[in-house]
Design goal:
The chain is of the alpha+beta class. The protein has helices at about 20-30, 35-40, 65-75, 95-105, and strands at about 1-10, 45-50, 55-65, 85-90. β2 (about 45-50) and β3 (about 55-65) form a beta hairpin. It starts with a strand and ends in a 5-residue tail after the last helix.
Length: about 110
């Protein structure tokens, strides 16, 4: 399993604040059973979901098997129907520091 960031954005004209059908997409995703997410899309956990209403952007952090299955999730749920999405691998700061310590032979501070 790996962690991925789902970075999304939409225009004010397609914002779920104003458009009921897009609001329904978010509400339906919120109601999904975690077991369904795991079995269907390999998404073990949605760790965080942050939204900036006035910027029309969001960042979700998920733990998943494969970014292609996250893509299928975005298409199947309708999330990709009104958002531009980027799915990228992410690491915590502590994980990054540990990788740097190992890569550069740095000891503990």
């Amino acid at each position: 399993m790996a962690k991925y960031g789902i970075y999304g954005s939409h225009t004010p004209e397609t914002c779920p604040i104003y458009i009921r059908k897009y609001a329904r997409v978010f509400a339906d995703i919120a109601d999904l059973d975690p077991a369904h997410l795991a079995s269907t899309y390999g998404i073990r956990e949605i760790e965080a979901r942050y939204h900036s209403a006035l910027e029309h952007t969001f960042l979700w952090i998920v733990e998943a098997e494969d970014p292609h299955r996250i893509e299928a999730f975005a298409i199947d749920t309708g999330l990709a129907s009104f958002n531009t999405l980027e799915i990228v691998p992410v690491h915590t700061f502590d994980e990054t520091v540990e990788r740097l310590r190992v890569a550069h032979g740095l000891g503990q501070a």
